[in-house]
Amino acid sequence: MTSEPNTPAHVCINCGKPTAIDIRRDELFGSGKEALIIENIPMLKCLNCGLVYLEPAVSEMIDEICSHPECHASFETKQVAKIA
Ligand SMILES: [Zn+2]
């Protein structure tokens, strides 16, 4: 195995292997009229154990957005589908 100094991989908090990569994902917080979609959230996904997790700074950012959505979010009309 070669070690590249600029490898984008991170050490996984779960399995400890340097196999976590940066991904971006949209997440829905809350439900109904209070629902808030945060797009493009930076996350880490471990290719070894499959864990997807947030860095503490990102987690704090999401807490802040959810606590004060009026400061961070704008209303957009989206298509919403439900599977009953
Ligand atoms: Zn892992």
CATH class: Alpha Beta
User: Which fold name is given in CATH as the topology?
Assistant: Ubiquitin-like (UB roll)
Q: What is the strand arrangement across the widest sheet?
A: 1-2-3
Largest sheet: 3 strands, antiparallel
The low-confidence parts are none
Helix fraction, binned, reads: 10-25%
- Please give the CATH architecture: Roll
Structure description:
This protein has a 3-stranded antiparallel sheet with strand order 1-2-3, covered by helices on one side. It is 19% helix and 27% strand. It has one domain: Ubiquitin-like (UB roll). The longest helix has 12 residues, at 56-67. The mean pLDDT is 90. With 84 residues, it is α+β, with helices and mostly antiparallel strands. It binds zinc ion. Zinc ion (ZN) binds next to loops.
Topology:
Layout: E1 20-29, E2 36-46, E3 52-53, H1 56-67, H2 69-72
Antiparallel strand pairs: 1-2, 2-3
Bound molecules: zinc ion.
Zinc ion binds at residues 12, 14-15, 17, 46, 48-49, 51.
Please summarize what this structure is.
The chain has 84 residues and is of the alpha+beta class.
Question: Which features characterize this protein?
Answer:
alpha+beta; 19% helix; binds zinc ion; elongated; single chain
